[in-house]
């Protein structure tokens, strides 16, 4: 079983509230989302593992059980071309839960008309494999449990 923790502080809102049909429809996978506190922050690893994909706006960490967890910092933030983001590690790095991955200012996304909501998705999982710990209008701190994956 893998516990997936919040990569940043904010409010856990559930994927259905994400203003993007790919995420809200769980097409990428089940999970939850965090509406972040609107201040500069550092997004951290939600699980122990290897960073297999790394972009300024999104990263995937795969744990020892092969569970890939996608953290997407904002919606349509790829269009910002890295503005407001600073990548702090390298693809292929081994990380521990809570290790800093990307420094981000969600206010840059908001100023550009983008949603700051951050989906945290269990890639290639089925909804029945997840148990929500914090889903639906729950304040979370960085590192608080979001869901478990069995």
TrEMBL record:
Keyword terms: Kinase, Phosphotransferase system, Sugar transport, Transferase, Transport
Nucleotide-binding among keywords: no
Main localization, broad class: cytoplasm
Superkingdom of the source species: Bacteria
Transmembrane portions of the chain: none
Localization terms from the record: Cytoplasm
Pfam families membership: PTS_EIIA_1
Residues annotated as domain PTS EIIA type-1: 20-124
Name by which UniProt lists this protein: PTS glucose transporter subunit IIA
């Amino acid at each position: 079983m893998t516990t997936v923790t919040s990569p940043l502080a904010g409010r856990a809102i559930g994927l259905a509230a994400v203003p993007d049909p790919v995420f809200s429809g769980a097409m990428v996978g089940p999970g939850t989302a965090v509406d972040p506190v609107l201040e500069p922050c550092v997004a951290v690893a939600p699980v122990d593992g290897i960073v297999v994909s790394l972009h300024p706006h999104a990263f995937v960490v795969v744990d020892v059980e092969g569970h890939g967890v996608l953290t997407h910092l904002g919606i349509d933030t790829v269009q910002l071309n890295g503005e407001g983001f600073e990548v702090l590690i390298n693809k292929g790095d081994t990380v521990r839960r809570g290790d800093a991955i990307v420094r981000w200012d969600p206010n840059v996304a908001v100023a550009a008309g983008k949603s700051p909501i951050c989906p945290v998705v269990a890639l290639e999982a089925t909804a029945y494999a997840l148990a929500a710990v914090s889903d639906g209008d729950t304040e979370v701190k960085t590192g608080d449990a979001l869901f478990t994956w069995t």
